[in-house]
């Protein structure tokens, strides 16, 4: 199949619009119209992973972390980033990254960690705001059903577990066509009064182009009167981190042993063990210190994440336990997640997991 067939499917699950501003997810190297036969999945894209792709006949590498975060002005093999990109290009291997956009969806990276720990009643820890918008459009009474259905078919009107949601109010509109206009209703130079319905629908901002095109196509007026409002409402399925419960509460020491075994950890850096049973667990794969306040507000007994600095551990203030399990370790199951996602959709497409340990941190225990 073509690269774009696979990447469009991945982006239907984790849209690029959900990535953080500093990120660089998407197709980094390659032509979306190129045919691919086999893909290699890895947490990181390194020279060794490109060598592995060459050896195994893979023409696409799908990594969680982008090999390129910042703009490159020169390609002269001076560092591992440039060498990796050059080697991929020379060997006609496409590079695709699915990073914070996969972090920020329910069912993504953090959900996979929660699954490994057997957490129940999971939810996004910090839902994103400003992702929802409201469209208000004024439609002549005879065309209301047609316009409303077009909006629904394009993806507007979905709220949680409900779809085809709208609010409709009756009124009338006035307008006067000027010279050069081609009005559906009314005459040039004469004010027209028309019975209209105001349709209001909520939609995800990533669907805006399709929804507006559908509205314009279905609406009978030459000039469509509409408004778009960005909403503060959060989307429960989009955002950072995961919160959930253990089926059976554990003592702090038993819990640390539990996650060390369940997440295949070498070691755990943690704050002082507080005198409480561990039941409510907050998780953020990778560097998640920015979610500590959210973890506390959620009532978490422990916050599992990575990349904590010395002074940041003091911020626990004995309100919960911070467990730093390592960046690679917290996200290692993303490879398994991506494999499952792809194989469920493209059962006959060849996709492999890397055999390279890309973790740059080694432990002497």
- Major sheet, described briefly? 6 strands, mixed
CATH superfamily of the largest domain: NIF3 (NGG1p interacting factor 3)-like
* End-to-end distance: 46 Å
- Coarse structural class: alpha/beta
Radius of gyration: 25 Å
Return the CATH topology of the largest domain: Udp-n-acetylmuramoylalanyl-d-glutamate--2,6- Diaminopimelate Ligase, Chain: A, domain 1
Care to count the β-strands? 15
Poorly predicted ranges (pLDDT <50, ≥5 residues)?
Answer: none
How many helices? 11
Main sheet: strand order: 5-10-12-13-14-11
Return the CATH architecture of the largest domain.
Answer: 3-Layer(aba) Sandwich
What is the 3D form? Answer: globular
N-to-C order of helices and strands: HEEHEHEHHEEHEEHEEHEEHEEHHE
Average pLDDT taken over every residue: 96
Helix content: 25-40%
* Total domain units: 3
| Strand residue percentage | 25-35%
- What's the CATH class label of the largest domain? Alpha Beta
Write a structural description:
- With 365 residues, this protein is α/β, with parallel strands linked by helices.
- The chain has 3 domains: 3-99 and 333-353, 3-Layer(aba) Sandwich (Udp-n-acetylmuramoylalanyl-d-glutamate--2,6- Diaminopimelate Ligase, Chain: A, domain 1); 109-127 and 239-325, Udp-n-acetylmuramoylalanyl-d-glutamate--2,6- Diaminopimelate Ligase, Chain: A, domain 1, CATH 3.40.1390; 132-233, 2-Layer Sandwich (Alpha-Beta Plaits), CATH 3.30.70.120.
- The protein has 11 helices and 15 strands.
- It has helices spanning 3-13, 47-56, 80-90, 100-103, 109-116, 144-153, 208-218, 252-262, 292-297, 327-331, 334-345; strands at residues 26-29, 38-42, 60-63, 94-97, 120-128, 132-140, 167-175, 192-204, 226-230, 235-250, 269-270, 278-287, 302-306, 321-324, 350-353.
- Strands 5-10-12-13-14-11 form a 6-stranded mixed beta sheet. A 5-stranded mixed beta sheet has the order 1-4-3-2-15, sandwiched between helices. Strands 7-8-6-9 form a 4-stranded antiparallel beta sheet, with helices on one face.
- Strand 12 (278-287), helix 9 (292-297) and strand 13 form a beta-alpha-beta unit.
- The longest helix has 12 residues, at 334-345.
- The mean pLDDT is 96.
- Keywords: Metal-binding.
- Belongs to the GTP cyclohydrolase I type 2/NIF3 family.
- Homohexamer.
- A divalent metal cation 2 binds at residue 64.
- Pfam families: DUF34_NIF3.
